[in-house]
Amino acid sequence: MTEPLPxxxxxxxxxxxxxxxxxxxxxxxxxxxxxxxxxxxxGDGLVVQAMPSGAELIRLEDxxxxxxxxxxxxxxxxxxxxxxxxxxxxLVGTPYSFLDYVSIALERLGVRPRFIRxxxxxxxxxxxxxxxxxxxxxxxxxxxxxxxxxxVTPGDLYKLLKELEANx
Length: 168
Prior knowledge:
Elements: E1 9-12, H1 16-28, E2 37-43, E3 46-49, E4 56-59, E5 66-69, H2 78-90, H3 99-108, H4 114-123, H5 128-138, H6 154-167
Antiparallel strand pairs: 1-2, 1-5, 2-3, 3-4
């Protein structure tokens, strides 16, 4: 496996009740994937990840083992990598909200009221996959052009990498 570079994102499995909850949610909305969590590699063996206690900067070795990296699949210039890294670091401390999961489920089921999407967009809260998309978006890299970053799941990121692999 290629070593990650700053700005790459990784996808992991989560064990226990939290992983089962995310797994069920992804299955329920038709987005099942073998991963339940996403993080951004910022270099020097460190990652930024969204957690219920807020986004944190931790050592990669303390994170859940990465199943798949975006390394070599999402083409990034050096300046983009550095900007993604900086933006991910800027997101450390960002609050987390379980309402975002409800919003995603309602969107996928086609019954989300506009006020819930607007609240999620304005709250500043981020779950893991949203943090990845937000760091990339702030750096000018749109992983899902035309898609509200608040609607992206770890499963969406996984499918993106599988598509990029298939086209490689």
